[in-house]
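The protein record now logged underneath.
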Amino acid sequence: MAADIVALSAAIAISVSAVATAWAEKEIGTSAIGAMAEKEGLFAKGLILTVIPETIVIFGLVVALQIVALGG
C-alpha cells in the first residue's frame, strides 16, 4: 500500500510539472513568434525564453526522485 502511494506521488510530481511546462512554453512561444514577426533580431532572446521553462520539469524530476528515495 505504501509503495503505491509513493509511486502515485512521484507520478503526480512529474505530470503536474510537465503540464505546467507545456502551458508556459505555449504562452512564451506564442509571444516570441509574435515578437519575431515584428523584429527578426529577437530570435535569440525568444529561443532562450522558450527553453527556460524546461527547468520546471527538471525540478519535478528531482522532487519525484526524492519522494521515491524517502518512501522506498
